[in-house]
C-alpha cells in the first residue's frame, strides 16, 4: 500500500471509531429562531440541531465523546454556525455515558450539593407521606408551558381576575422529560396577585400526575428578595414533624418567553391527603382537609379590571384591627355562634372532601365553642388535658404556634388569623393543624418589627388576642410543652449554627438563577405597591421599603435598606438570641 492509502485507511478507521463513540448531548436553552445550540469538543464545534418533540427548549444531537474529557455548550447562528455565545466554564465528562443528562446552558452543575435540614421532631403519627421525586434537593428542573398566546396575555393583563386557561406542559429535569396536555392554569395568591411577578397554580387532568401530585403551586416569592424564606419555612415545618409540602425550585418558561425562577409547592388539593396521610393510596379513607382563607372572595385591588371577585366597589380597606394591632379574622377559631353556616361560608374552605360522606363544619363549630368555654386567664389544672386531646391533636397545634413565633410569621394564625390548615383525621376524630404560604416570615413583616422579633412570646402580635393560645396555655402541661418546643426548635434548628450553612448553600445554588430571574421582563404590573402607598394605615409599613430594592446578597447577608425588612442572616441571629435569652438558655 502507498503511504497515502495507509494514512487514509488509518484516518477512516479513526473517524469510524470516534463516530462509534458518539454520544447524545442534551441542553436546555431558549434561543431565537435564527440561532441553534452546539457543543464545543476538543476545539471543534458540533451543532445540536434537533429539538425535543415536546419542548423546543431542549436541544440535542450526536457528537463525539471528548478526548480531553472536557466540553462546553455554545450558541450558534443557524445559517453559518458562527458562534454567538460560549459557556465561560468547562464541563467534565465524568463517566462512560451514551447520553448526557438534560443540562442547562450557562449553569455549571446539574445537581447542587445542598446541605439539608436535620429532622428534629418525629413526624406526627398521622403522617404517612408517599415517596416522591417531585422535589429533588439540589436540582432545578424546567417547566415549559405552551399554548395560545392571546389567552396567556389575557391572564397576565387581568391579574386580579381569576381567569383559568388550558396549556400543554413539558417538564424537564436532569433525568426525566414528562409531557402533559391540557393543564389548567391560573394565577394564585391574594395580595401577591398585585406584584409584577405572578404566582401560578397548575392542575393536571384526571388520571395524570407529576410524581403523584396533580395540583402544584408555582410560587413567585416576589415579596422576598432572598428567594428562600418560603423554602426554609416549608422545610422547617417538615423538620418539626408537621404535615406540609415539600419545596423545590424550577425555571419557568411560557411559550417563547422566560418567566423566571419559582418555588414548587404542593397545593393542598386532591390527591394531597392520600399522599400525606395514606402513603399515596387513594382508595384508603381520609378525612376532610380545610384551609383558612381570609382573602377568599375579596379583591383588594378595587374594580378597575375585575368583577369576578365579589363585585363590591368598596374593598380597598385593609382588614386590620387598629386596637389590637392585628388582622381582623373570622377564621381564627373564634366562636361565631350556633349556626353551622357561619363557619362554612368562606371562613374555613374545604380543599378536599373526605373519602366517605361530605365535609362537616360541625366539627369546627364545636371546637370553637369548646375553646370559648375554657378559662383564658386563670390557671386551669391538668384535668382538661384529655378534653383538649379528644378534639385536637394538641402536639400539632403547639408545634404550629411555636413555628409562627419562632419564624416571626406575620401572615399566619396569630397575626392575620390566616394561612393555616386543619385536617380532620378520620381515624382519631381529631383536628390537626399545619401551616402554609410563608411569604411574610423571617424578617419580612407588615407589622411592628419589635414585637415580631422579641423573646417574650406572649407579646407576639395576636398571641393574646386570638382565642386559642391564652386558653391552651392556661393548662400547665401545655404551657410547659409549648415553652420547651420554643426552646428546643430554636436550639436545635432555627439558629445561625444549624441554619446558616443551609442558607449559604441555597445562596450559592440560587445565585445565577436569581441574576437570571431579575434580568427578565415581568408579565404583570405592580398594583400592590401603589395600593400600599395610598393606604394611610399606621400599621402597614411603606410598601416601597417593604419590598425594597435589596440585591440578593443584601437580602440574605445585609446591610438592610429599610427598617421594615431584616436580612436573613441578621434576623436569624437576632431571633434565636432573643428567644434563648428570654428563657435563660444563652
Ligand atoms: C436574528 O433574529 C433576530 C430577531 O429574532 C434579529 O434581531 C437578528 O438581527 C437576527 N440575526 C441575524 C444574524 O440574522
Ligand atoms: C457522530 O457525530 C458526528 C458529528 O455530529 C456526525 O457527523 C456523525 O455522523 C456521527 N456518527 C454517528 C455514527 O452517529
Ligand atoms: C461566568 O459568567 C457569569 C455570568 O454570566 C458570572 O457570574 C461568572 O462569574 C462567570 N464565571 C467565570 C468563571 O468567569
Ligand atoms: C428536643 O430536641 C431533641 C433533639 O432534636 C429531641 O431529641 C427531643 O425529643 C426534643 N424534646 C422535646 C421536649 O421536644
Ligand atoms: C397540546 O398537545 C396536544 C397533543 O399533543 C396537541 O394536539 C395540541 O395542539 C397541543 N396544544 C398546544 C396549544 O400546543
Ligand atoms: C381583561 O382586561 C381587559 C382590559 O385590560 C378587559 O377589556 C377584559 O374585559 C378583561 N377580561 C376579563 C375576562 O376580565
Ligand atoms: C367605603 O367604606 C367607607 C368605610 O366603610 C365608607 O365611609 C365609604 O362611604 C365607602 N365608599 C363607598 C364608595 O361605598
Ligand atoms: C357532623 O358531625 C357531628 C358531630 O361532630 C354529627 O353529630 C353530625 O351528624 C354530622 N353531620 C353530618 C351531616 O354528617
Ligand atoms: C377572656 O374571657 C372573658 C370571659 O369569657 C372574655 O370577656 C374576654 O374577652 C376573654 N379574653 C380574651 C383575650 O380572649
Ligand atoms: C412595637 O411593639 C413594641 C413592643 O411590643 C412597643 O414597645 C412599641 O411601642 C411598638 N411600636 C409601635 C410603632 O407600635
Ligand atoms: C401538669 O402536668 C405537668 C407535666 O406533666 C406537670 O409538670 C405539672 O406539675 C402538672 N401541674 C399540675 C398543677 O398538676
Ligand atoms: C427601586 O429603585 C428605583 C430607582 O432607584 C426606584 O424608582 C423604585 O421605586 C425602587 N423600587 C422599590 C420597590 O423600592
Automatic annotation (TrEMBL):
Keywords: Signal. Residues 1-20 form the signal peptide. InterPro entries: Spore_coat_CotH_CotH2/3/7. The keyword Signal applies. PANTHER family: INNER SPORE COAT PROTEIN H (PTHR40050). This is Coth-domain-containing protein.
Amino acid at each position: 500500500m502507498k503511504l497515502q492509502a495507509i494514512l487514509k485507511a488509518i484516518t477512516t478507521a479513526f473517524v469510524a471509531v470516534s463516530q462509534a463513540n458518539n454520544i447524545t448531548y442534551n441542553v436546555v436553552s431558549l434561543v431565537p429562531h435564527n440561532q441553534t445550540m452546539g457543543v464545543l469538543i476538543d476545539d471543534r464545534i458540533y451543532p445540536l440541531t434537533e429539538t425535543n418533540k415536546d419542548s423546543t427548549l431542549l436541544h440535542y444531537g450526536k457528537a463525539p465523546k471528548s478526548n480531553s474529557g472536557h466540553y462546553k455548550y455554545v450558541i450558534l447562528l443557524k445559517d453559518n454556525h458562527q458562534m454567538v455565545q460560549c459557556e465561560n466554564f468547562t464541563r467534565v465528562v465524568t463517566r462512560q455515558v451514551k447520553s448526557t443528562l438534560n443540562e442547562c446552558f450557562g449553569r455549571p452543575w446539574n445537581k447542587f450539593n445542598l446541605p439539608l435540614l436535620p429532622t428534629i421532631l418525629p413526624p406526627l403519627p398521622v403522617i404517612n407521606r408517599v415517596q416522591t421525586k417531585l422535589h429533588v434537593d439540589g436540582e432545578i428542573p424546567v417547566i415549559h408551558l405552551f399554548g395560545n398566546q392571546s389567552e396567556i396575555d389575557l391572564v397576565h393583563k387581568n391579574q386580579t381576575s381569576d381567569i383559568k386557561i388550558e396549556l400543554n406542559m413539558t417538564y424537564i429535569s436532569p433525568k426525566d422529560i414528562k409531557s402533559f396536555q391540557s393543564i389548567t392554569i391560573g394565577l394564585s395568591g391574594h395580595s401577591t396577585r398585585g406584584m409584577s411577578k405572578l404566582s401560578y397554580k397548575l392542575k393536571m387532568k384526571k388520571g395524570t400526575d407529576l410524581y403523584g401530585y396533580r395540583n402544584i403551586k408555582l410560587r413567585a416569592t416576589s415579596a422576598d428578595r432572598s428567594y428562600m424564606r418560603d423554602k426554609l419555612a416549608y422545610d422547617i415545618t417538615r423538620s418539626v414533624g408537621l404535615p406540609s409540602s415539600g419545596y423545590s425550585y424550577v425555571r419557568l418558561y411560557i411559550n417563547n418567553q422566560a418567566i423566571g425562577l419559582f418555588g414548587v409547592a404542593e397545593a393542598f388539593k386532591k390527591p394531597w391527603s392520600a399522599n400525606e396521610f395514606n402513603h399515596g393510596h387513594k382508595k384508603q379513607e381520609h378525612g376532610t382537609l380545610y384551609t383558612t382563607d381570609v382573602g377568599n372572595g375579596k379583591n383588594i385591588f378595587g374594580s378597575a379590571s375585575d368583577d369576578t371577585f365579589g363585585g363590591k366597589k368598596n374593598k380597598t380597606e385593609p382588614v386590620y384591627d387598629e386596637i389590637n394591632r392585628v388582622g381582623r379574622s373570622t377564621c381564627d377559631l373564634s366562636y361565631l355562634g350556633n349556626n353551622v353556616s357561619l363557619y362554612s361560608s368562606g371562613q374555613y374552605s374545604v380543599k378536599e372532601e373526605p373519602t366517605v360522606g361530605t365535609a362537616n363544619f360541625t366539627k369546627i363549630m364545636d371546637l370553637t365553642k369548646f375553646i370559648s368555654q375554657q378559662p383564658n386567664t386563670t390557671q386551669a389544672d391538668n384535668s382538661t388535658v384529655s378534653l383538649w386531646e379528644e378534639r385536637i391533636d394538641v402536639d400539632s397545634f403547639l408545634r404550629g404556634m411555636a413555628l409562627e413565633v419562632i419564624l416571626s410569621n406575620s401572615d399566619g394564625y396569630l397575626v392575620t388569623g390566616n394561612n393555616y390548615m386543619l385536617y380532620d383525621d378520620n381515624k382519631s376524630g381529631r383536628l390537626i393543624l399545619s401551616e402554609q404560604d410563608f411569604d411574610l416570615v423571617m424578617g419580612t413583616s407588615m407589622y411592628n418589627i419589635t414585637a415580631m422579633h422579641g423573646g417574650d412570646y406572649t407579646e407576639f402580635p395576636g398571641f393574646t388576642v386570638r382565642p386559642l393560645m391564652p386558653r391552651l396555655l392556661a393548662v400547665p402541661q401545655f404551657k410547659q410543652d409549648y415553652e420547651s418546643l420554643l426552646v428546643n426548635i430554636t436550639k436545635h434548628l432555627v439558629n445561625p449554627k444549624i441554619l446558616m450553612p443551609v442558607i449559604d448553600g441555597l445562596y450559592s445554588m440560587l445565585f445565577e438563577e436569581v441574576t437570571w430571574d431579575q434580568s427578565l421582563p415581568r408579565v404583570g404590573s405592580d398594583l400592590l405597591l401603589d395600593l400600599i402607598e395610598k393606604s394611610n394605615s399606621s400599621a402597614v409599613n411603606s410598601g416601597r421599603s417593604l419590598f425594597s430594592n435589596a440585591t440578593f446578597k443584601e437580602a440574605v447577608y445585609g446591610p438592610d435598606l429599610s427598617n421594615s425588612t431584616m436580612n436573613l442572616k441578621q434576623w436569624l441571629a437576632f431571633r434565636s438570641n432573643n428567644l434563648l435569652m428570654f428563657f435563660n438558655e444563652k
